[in-house]
């Protein structure tokens, strides 16, 4: 332990600075410096006099000395941009309090004290959307991770659990609905048009789970009876006028409550469950105890305004937040380094829920696409970190795809190795052992070990090592035995030069190429740098299907001829493996194409058309297979993104990759035009429905239209415009508009104008209007983005709108990686302009620029220059500063 973390007079703090930091150097918080709190807060009573301009907060804490603390007399109450109006100890004005930066420190000599503090906050000026803020005239809170300290002074750390009583009082006409955590215990009218409500939450919780909402809201209500017979009132609260778009969210909630009882034995523990939709929100949603607050995006849906993907996302986010009630709230995190304890596990739980509600295979394919598109690049870049990070400057920067999605993959691997039933024993033990506690990732692993009987000794490396392992596999055949050799290497990442091999569970099947069948799947665990595995009973050299179901989050390099991949794409009985074979074929072809320097039409002068022909053959098989569900067919036809293709190369030329990908799309579109036409016609004849067949048809309609437009733009425009006009649902309307957006045809403007007029006033649909244009591959996409930024509907202060335009641009290889550097400049400028308004959202744009090291030198220079320009700003938030500094490395 360094000097600064063991001061002469020790005091508790999870946030200990590095030794003697120079002035203005960022504070780095280290996992290993964790100290238990010296003081606990068993109870808190909060009283709010609500106003949009000003809200008065009175907080009464009961504090007790922590028997497991270090005995310090100093009580540290965190604050952020607030100052105390009143500080009382045991009923008397306190004199011996002092400020330490933003925090308030009190010296206490007894065992138990009553502390009273008053503060004043200004919700209307809170553009960061952390703490108490105003959105569309209503008041709401966001406290995770460190927002509570923007409301009142408190030990704002997840290992301090308190029972909350809340009094809210405000103007009844302005705030007819008053909500907080737990149950409403009393309400009444006051003088001058005011009213009040008392809320009490019987479950002790950390401050990050506190919430309140006040505003003009209406509810869609349902009742759920839990497995022990408890009646729960479930409400989805929205602004008046939106209530007819809440049924899917409410149905998803009821389904999630039932599913968690069956799949994990988890029962809801209050009589009330509220969800509130707000239109200004930094993230997707928040699991505050009994009062989930959601981005409207993950609540509001009806067929005319939401796509099938929107419906799925709502189901999954509603499930995710609900599942947190156990994985996160009943068992919470000891400190923020343990974030994956609740997030990785809850993502796995929501993935399993969605798989059970719909198609397991499709869900798996989508989840792996998300992992590869977002997490793999993170793991190979300057911001790489283990799922349990070792240090941070700003915790908001660690709500990452690594902590969430890789975190889920790591727990999924334990489930794969244990089997479903044994895994359930492990999770039962975890919940039983740690209910009511603030736990660690180590506690979770130990419970799974004890409950399943698995030895997870080396497996713990998945928590401490960053980087996506690369696994090279080769197979040879001798007599009737196939011998598989596997080698793994975990790449170096910032701060972790040397890595150890990790246990990697791989589901394997060997196909007989004549019968197109296998004699059963085997699970092998590669836990050394290199190993061999023998498979007997193979009279002929088999076709290898490996990492089926994506059993491990690794990058595989398998020595396999194209013909074997064509075979698997057509015959593998694991739909994920079919998808994987298609992707491998396409990736292989495109990487060869850019390395060989193909011409514009994709014709290979050096005789490599064979790879492209293999892709065509596989596509043909997918198009012709009548036994295949349309939902899967649609997935199999999606080309890998440029981001994923770039991951295959040490240094990528995104312009060349984009061109090669577009050329392949156009070639396939032209070669298989008749099949794509037939698919588009057949799918268009299926009437609207929310069943799997109709959804599958819509997915195929969208994909076939993409290929038709690539192969024959004139026909594509005709069909897309007709589809747009005939659409009776948003999925069809959006997929038609997506295609039109990329074409330089008059129908484009007509459809865009119609779309805007038709959906004017519906913020979520207008977001789509922005994001479709910014995400298109239109030749003048950068001009379009610049024009859209001047549109009357555009604002930087609403995170959904800012992301609709600029995140779509940052993720669009054509716009972002334009050789002129204009895309980089645009994103750089947005970071600089957004930082003073909303640093959390601003920081999310930095990683796109941070990938410069893996991009060809001309573009890399331009990307780096943008980062340097951001870094040169005199004032920068901690959020952006951390991301930019690490990206410049
Ligand atoms: N715990 C939430 C994610 C979340 C995190 C931070 C926030 O602050 C703006 C908001 C939400 C979840 O996993 O759903
Ligand atoms: Zn979560």
UniProtKB/TrEMBL annotation:
Enzyme Commission code: 3.4.11.2
Biological processes per GO annotation: proteolysis
Domain Peptidase M1 membrane alanine aminopeptidase positions: 249-459
Annotated keywords: Aminopeptidase, Hydrolase, Metal-binding, Metalloprotease, Protease, Zinc
Domain Aminopeptidase N-like N-terminal stretches: 121-209
Region (Disordered): 1-25
Pfam families recorded: DUF3458, DUF3458_C, Peptidase_M1, Peptidase_M1_N
GO terms assigned for molecular function: alanyl aminopeptidase activity; metallopeptidase activity; zinc ion binding
Gene3D superfamilies to which the protein is assigned, alphabetical: 2.60.40.1840, 3.30.2010.30, Neutral Protease Domain 2 (1.10.390.10), Peptidase M1, alanyl aminopeptidase, C-terminal domain (1.25.50.10), tricorn interacting facor f3 domain (2.60.40.1730)
The organism of origin for this protein: Novosphingobium endophyticum
Domain Peptidase M1 alanyl aminopeptidase C-terminal: 562-888
Cofactors demanded by this protein: Zn(2+)
Coiled coil: none
Keyword presence, Protease: yes
Swiss-Prot/TrEMBL catalytic activity: Release of an N-terminal amino acid, Xaa-|-Yaa- from a peptide, amide or arylamide. Xaa is preferably Ala, but may be most amino acids including Pro (slow action). When a terminal hydrophobic residue is followed by a prolyl residue, the two may be released as an intact Xaa-Pro dipeptide
Domain Peptidase M1 alanyl aminopeptidase Ig-like fold: 467-558
Name the record gives this protein: Aminopeptidase N
């Amino acid at each position: 332990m360094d000097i600064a973390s063991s001061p002469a007079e020790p005091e508790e703090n999870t946030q200990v600075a590095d030794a003697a930091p120079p002035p203005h150097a960022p504070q780095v918080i280290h996992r290993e410096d964790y100290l238990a709190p010296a003081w606990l807060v068993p109870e808190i009573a909060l009283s709010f006099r609500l106003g949009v301009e000003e809200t008065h907060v009175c907080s009464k804490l009961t504090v007790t000395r922590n028997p497991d603390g270090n005995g310090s007399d100093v009580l540290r109450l965190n604050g952020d941009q607030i100052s105390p109006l009143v500080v009382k100890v045991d009923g008397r004005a306190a004199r011996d309090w002092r400020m330490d930066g933003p925090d308030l420190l009190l010296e206490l000599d007894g065992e138990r004290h009553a502390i009273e503090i008053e503060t004043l906050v200004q919700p209307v000026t809170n553009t960061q959307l952390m703490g108490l803020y105003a959105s569309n005239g209503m008041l709401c809170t966001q406290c995770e991770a460190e927002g509570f300290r923007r409301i009142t002074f408190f030990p704002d750390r997840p290992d301090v659990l308190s029972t909350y009583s809340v009094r809210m009082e405000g103007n009844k006409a302005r705030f007819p609905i008053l909500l907080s955590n737990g149950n409403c215990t009393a309400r009444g009218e006051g003088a001058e048009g005011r009213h009040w409500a008392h809320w009490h939450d019987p479950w002790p919780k950390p401050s990050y789970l506190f919430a309140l909402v006040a505003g003009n809201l209406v509810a869609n209500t349902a009742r759920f009876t839990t497995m022990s017979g408890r009646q729960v009132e479930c409400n989805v609260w929205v602004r008046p006028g939106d209530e007819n778009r809440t049924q899917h969210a409410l149905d998803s909630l009821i389904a999630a409550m039932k599913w968690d009882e069956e799949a994990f034995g988890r029962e809801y523990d209050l009589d009330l469950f509220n969800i509130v939709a707000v239109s200004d929100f930094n993230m997707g949603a928040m699991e505050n105890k009994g009062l989930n607050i959601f981005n409207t995006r993950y609540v509001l849906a009806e067929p005319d305004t939401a796509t099938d993907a929107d419906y799925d996302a709502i189901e999954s986010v509603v499930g995710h937040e609900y599942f947190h009630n156990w994985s996160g709230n009943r068992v919470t995190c000891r400190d923020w380094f343990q974030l994956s304890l609740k997030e990785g596990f809850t993502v796995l739980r929501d993935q399993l829920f969605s798989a059970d509600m719909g198609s397991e295979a499709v869900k798996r394919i989508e989840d792996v696409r998300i992992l590869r598109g977002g997490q793999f690049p993170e793991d190979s870049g300057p911001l790489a970190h283990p799922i349990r990070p070792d240090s941070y400057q700003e915790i908001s920067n660690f709500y990452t795809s690594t902590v969430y999605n890789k975190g889920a993959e790591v727990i999924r691997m334990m489930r794969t190795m244990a089997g479903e039933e044994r895994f359930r024993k492990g999770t039962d033990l975890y919940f039983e052992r740690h209910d009511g506690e603030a736990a660690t990732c180590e506690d979770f692993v130990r419970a799974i070990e004890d409950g399943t009987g698995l030895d997870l000794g080396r497996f713990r490396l998945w928590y401490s090592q960053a980087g996506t392992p690369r696994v090279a596999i080769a197979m040879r055949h001798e007599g009737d035995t196939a011998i598989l050799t596997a080698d793994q290497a975990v790449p170096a990442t910032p701060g972790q030069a040397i890595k150890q091999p990790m246990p990697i569970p791989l589901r394997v099947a060997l196909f007989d190429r004549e019968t197109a069948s296998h004699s059963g799947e085997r699970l092998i665990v590669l836990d050394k740098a290199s190993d061999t595995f023998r498979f007997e009973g193979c009279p002929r050299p088999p076709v290898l299907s490996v990492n089926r179901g994506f059993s491990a989050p690794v990058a595989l390099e398998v020595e396999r001829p194209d013909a074997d991949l064509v075979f698997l794409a057509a015959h593998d009985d694991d739909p994920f493996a079919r998808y994987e074979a298609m992707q491998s074929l396409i990736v292989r072809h495109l990487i060869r194409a850019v390395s060989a320097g193909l011409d514009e039409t994709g014709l290979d002068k050096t005789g490599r058309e064979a790879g492209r022909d293999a892709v065509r053959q596989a596509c043909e098989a997918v198009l012709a297979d009548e036994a295949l569900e349309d939902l899967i067919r649609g997935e199999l036809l999606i080309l890998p993104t440029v981001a994923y293709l770039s991951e295959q190369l040490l240094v990528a030329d995104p312009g060349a990759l984009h061109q090669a990908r577009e050329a392949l799309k156009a070639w396939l579109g032209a070669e298989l035009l008749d099949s794509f036409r037939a698919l588009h016609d057949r799918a268009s004849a299926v009437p609207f429905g929310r069943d799997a067949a109709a959804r599958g048809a819509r997915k195929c309609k969208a994909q076939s239209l993409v290929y038709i437009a690539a192969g024959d733009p004139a026909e594509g425009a005709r069909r897309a415009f007709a589809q747009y006009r005939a659409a009776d649902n948003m999925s069809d309307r959006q997929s038609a508009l997506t295609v039109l957006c990329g074409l330089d045809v008059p129908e484009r403007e007509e459809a865009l104008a119609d779309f805007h007029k038709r959906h004017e006033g519906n913020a979520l649909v207008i977001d789509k209007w922005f994001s479709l244009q910014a995400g298109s591959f239109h030749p003048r996409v950068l001009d379009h983005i610049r024009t859209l930024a001047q549109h009357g509907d555009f604002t930087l202060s609403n995170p959904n709108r800012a992301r609709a335009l600029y995140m779509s641009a940052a993720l669009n290889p054509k716009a972002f990686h334009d050789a002129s550097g204009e895309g980089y400049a645009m994103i750089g400028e947005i970071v600089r302009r957004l930082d003073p308004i909303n640093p959390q959202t601003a920081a999310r744009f930095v990683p796109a620029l941070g990938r410069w090291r893996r991009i060809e030198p001309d573009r890399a220079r331009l990307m780096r220059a943008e980062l340097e320009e951001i870094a040169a700003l005199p004032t920068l938030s901690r959020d952006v500063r951390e991301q930019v500094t690490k990206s410049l490395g």
